[in-house]
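Q: Sequence in, structure out?
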Amino acid sequence: MSIGTVLSVLRDEFPEVTISKIRFLESEGLIEPQRTPSGYRKFSAGDVDRLAHVLRMQRDHYLPLKVIREHLDAMERGEAVQLPVVGRQRTPQDMGEAPAVPTVARVHRAELLAAADVDEGELKEWESYGLIAPLADGAYEAEAVTVAALVAELGRFGIEPRHLRVMKAAADREAGLVDQVVAPLKRHRNPQTRALAEARTKELAALTVKLHAALVKTALGVRLP
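A: Exactly. Output:
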């Protein structure tokens, strides 16, 4: 299977999984798909099962990758290993509820490079064009992984980082418009109103992304999924 097919298979159970996430788990040695002579990944059914197992251990047990790797190695040796309790584990009573699963808000530079499968020189170039920017402590927002992967993918079609500055400028203007709408809610003293501001921000962000995609499709005169 291609990485896109694997993504479709996994998303039924793991709707938040991304291609960047799969590549990151590969870079960490948790899966080892075969490669075609041209370098494309080819996943077996066993690779997909292993990926699903990794994702379940992260979601249901909140295990770090090191512990997951040790558990998988033990399974391959035929050993029966009890999963350690890390954080809050889901119980049968939780299964009908929306799980309170923590998300990774930031990634370190090395994690970003590994997840996006790029080198230091490429990342520095993207930073020089403002496509990706570190936080004050040198870490990155988790979404930077997606940005980096997409910039790299576009580069394979000859679209260089300097060409993408117009997209970054458009995104900044769209974000400014959304922020202008929700700013009064963010400044409110009522915690419920501030929570509403966060929900409204997500809703408006989703709408602007859909509109942007529709406008690009219309401009190109093509039908895309």
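The beta strands are 34-35, 41-42, 106-107, 140-141.
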